[in-house]
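Margin note from the TA: students keep mixing up input and output lines. Inputs are the sequences; the output is the structure of the whole complex. Example:
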Amino acid sequence: MSHDFAADTIYWPTAEPFKLETVAAGKTEAGYYYSAYQFCAAEHGGTHIDAPVHFSEGNKPVDQLSLEQLIGTAVKLDVSAKAKSDRDYQVSSSDFQSWEEQNGRIPDGSIVLIQTGWSEYWNDRTKYLGTDKRGTEGVAELHFPGLAPEAARWLTENRKISAIGLDTASIDYGQSKLFESHRTLMARDIPAFENVANLDRLPTKIKLVVALPMKIRGGSGGPLRIVARTDVP
Amino acid sequence: MSHDFAADTIYWPTAEPFKLETVAAGKTEAGYYYSAYQFCAAEHGGTHIDAPVHFSEGNKPVDQLSLEQLIGTAVKLDVSAKAKSDRDYQVSSSDFQSWEEQNGRIPDGSIVLIQTGWSEYWNDRTKYLGTDKRGTEGVAELHFPGLAPEAARWLTENRKISAIGLDTASIDYGQSKLFESHRTLMARDIPAFENVANLDRLPTKIKLVVALPMKIRGGSGGPLRIVARTDVP
């Protein structure tokens, strides 16, 4: 459920793109093949995690997140039909309440995954972000779905979730200026997974999700490898 | 079982150290807190994976490794007593044969973990690598334990392992010049986990290891997050 990292991986319009540099690739003097690379990356691009300290001073950095928070059962909310007809769609608390009417209460400790259907646009930066422009000019033109601030409040005040994730570039929708959903979640030490892939392949209830971020000391986030197992007994 | 990444994280003497740069950390004009960083790293430093293409041309890069190979049951061989009295100790096929006499045959598909005891030196670069020198001068003075080439051959020819890992900087011992264990393993598409932490906390047989590398497209390796669960029924 992770996109790969390369020069064309989608990052925020203001961020440097991912860079891979060849250190060696070929036969050595001793006669054997050897390849090695080095890379530079922003924390918040590609499939990555936002640690609470990203938007909440003094809260947990990425290396301090407990594995219990990153590994566990998950639920999936599919809003792709609504998002398809509205690039600026914000998932509401009533979307979650409708989900619960059908599927029962979101269990305590769940990882909540939101499928907007956006990952099908991953290979087209303009469709995915709403713009191909870079810098602050690009930020102004971002259009993609996210979680409404009132839904973030509802989730944190009324349910006990351990983490949240979605298949767009940000848990707040593209036109957000104040990033209130980030701030609400992260004030409660709830991390967010962004640019998650393959959510369409998951069922509504997932028995095991394992989300392991790169362990950057003091990091506000970082590259995330996230996998799911749906066949656990 | 992963060390964290920071400026003091141990990399190969010829590699650039890990660098973290602050993009933002503080109150924004809009009044909320925001922090973000970017980083540069070599693939092969800290707790990381060597993908087969690292030493075997045309074999799998890190993003192509199957999850089946990186997730599964594991066995642990503890050679820390021998390594303690010999910094250049190379784990032999007879070490594995002795392990099997006590514990039974290494099951097909196992991840094999070798505990040399070296992670207790992690905070002391000189003790861990055998030298604090950098560059090729440092490489010449590397002294730490590893897997003997004959043991790599024995494992690949006589057992079906899916991956191998240890708590030193390289699967070949420090004084290796030809990296034959790497080459033998990687020719068979067996990846290696290096600089693994906390192996002393694992039992001899481990029910579940999950080793998820950063998904660098075409990468010869990369940062690895590795966790184990020992209480699965």
